Amino acid sequence: MPVIRSELYIEAPIETCFDLARSIDVHAQSTSQTKERAVGGVMSGLIELGQTVTWEAVHFGIKQRLTAKITEFELPFYFVDEMVRGAFKRFRHTHEFCAVDSGTLMIDEFDYTSPLGPLGKLADRMFLEAYMRSFLLKRNLYIKQLAEKQAA
């Protein structure tokens, strides 16, 4: 059960960071390397509490679909999305935002369990955890770049 946690300071208002992080359009832009696109549920704009989105993407050369639901939400401080259907056995992705000085501290925590029991644990150690860490970091750096550009 890996937990991937990162903290990133963004020189932009908390509301800007929060909205960029829950934007379906920004998510699709930030994950273009996997051809990620919304194909069900909320397909553009800002996702809200109780809503779902189904993503289609290519990971490891395989087209996959994953549906996530916003299960917790407190504007502009945090939201949580959890997998409803997809390749993982389960995941819980927490996005926290704290106003700090003239900017925002974005705290991202991705807690997941791979499928296939011991084989999934082996995959985590061999490549999946590093892949997910890199994938999430690229997305968060994209949000940082957009937020700071908007704030300038």
TrEMBL record:
SUPFAM superfamilies membership: Bet v1-like (SSF55961)
Family matches, as Pfam families: Polyketide_cyc
Domain Coenzyme Q-binding protein COQ10 START: 48-125
The protein's name in its UniProt record: Coenzyme Q-binding protein COQ10 START domain-containing protein
